[in-house]
Amino acid sequence: METREPEVIRDKEAMRRWSRSMRSQGKTIGLVPTMGFLHDGHLSLVRQSLTLSDVTVVSIYVNPGQFSPTEDLSTYPSDFSGDLSKLAAVSSSNSDVIVVFNPRNLYDYNDGERRKKKTNGGGGGGGGKVVVSCVEEGGLGHETWVRVERLEKGLCGKSRPVFFRGVATIVTKLFNIVEPDVAMFGKKDYQQWRLIKRMVRDLDFGIEIVGSDIAREKDGLAMSSRNVHLSGEERQRALSISKSLAMAKASAAQGKTGCKELKDMIISEIVGAAGRIDYVEIVDQETLEGVEEIKSGIVICVAAWFGTVRLIDNIEINVAV
C-alpha cells in the first residue's frame, strides 16, 4: 500500500482552524504530544489514538519551557524527516488521518522591537534549531505558567524544579490550540501522566487522558529518545534498571513488601552496573506519596544516570500482596 507523509501545520491559528473544521464535520480528534525523534513507543500511542478518534494530531515540539538553562535542550535529538516517514508508515488505511503540528516557537509572541533584541529562542524540532531555554532571565515575554503544585514536587520534580511547570504549561497550550477529545501519554513518564490527569480534572478540560503502558526494547530497556546518546557499554549497563524493577516486583509477589528492602535492592543493582542514582521511590499510584510497605496499588519509580544520559523507568504493582 502506498504511504503518504502527513500534512504539516506550523501556525497555531491554522492548527486551530483545521481542528475546528474537523469538529464541524462531526469528527473526533486525538492528540499525541511529542518532542520528536519518534520511536516505537511514540508510534504505539499514535496507533492507539487512531483507534480512539477519527483523526489524530501528532505535535512535534521540543518545549524549551521544561528545560532549565543547564539542561540538554540544545542537544535534544531531532530527525523531522524521519519522523514524517515513520508516521506515514503507521497509517493502515486510507481513512487514517494523521496531521503533524510543528510550530517553531510557542513562547514567541512577536512583540516588535523587544523580540529583535532576544537571542534565537527556538522550539520545534524540525522548524528551527533549539538553542535557548525560555526560562532564562528575560525570556520572550512569557510569564504565565500552569502548576500542579503537589504532584510536581517529588520524584523528577526534586532534581528538575522547572520541568513540570513547563510540561503543564505546554500541554495546556496544545490543548487550547488543537482542542482534542482525547490525548495520549506514555506511562514511562509516570509522574507526567498523573500530573496531566490531575490538571485536566482540576481545570475542567473536556479531554480524556489515556495512559499507555511502557514500550520496551526486546532486552527490556524502556524506549526513550535519549537512548541514542548511550554508548554500547552504557546501554548494556542501563538494563540494570528494568531488571532490578522486575526483581522488585517478583520479590513483592513473594511477600517481601517492605519498601526499604526493595529500594535498597534496586539501588544495589543499578550502582553495581556503574549507574548514578537520582532517585528510587515507591509511591501510591494516585497521590505519588511515598509508602513504607506495599499494601495496595503502588508504582516503583527510578531515575538514574548512565554516562551523561538520565533515564527514567517504573513498574506498577496493581494488586494487594
UniProtKB/TrEMBL annotation:
GO terms for molecular function: ATP binding; pantoate-beta-alanine ligase activity. Its EC number is 6.3.2.1. It is found in: Cytoplasm. It comes from the Eukaryota. One of its GO terms (cellular component) is cytosol. GO terms for biological process: pantothenate biosynthetic process. Keywords: ATP-binding, Cytoplasm, Ligase, Nucleotide-binding, Pantothenate biosynthesis. Pathway: Cofactor biosynthesis; (R)-pantothenate biosynthesis; (R)-pantothenate from (R)-pantoate and beta-alanine: step 1/1. It catalyses: (R)-pantoate + beta-alanine + ATP = (R)-pantothenate + AMP + diphosphate + H(+). SUPFAM superfamilies: Nucleotidylyl transferase. The keyword Lipid biosynthesis does not apply. Its main location: cytoplasm. The keyword Ligase applies. Homodimer. Belongs to the pantothenate synthetase family. This is Pantoate--beta-alanine ligase. It comes from Raphanus sativus (Radish). The gene is LOC108848739.
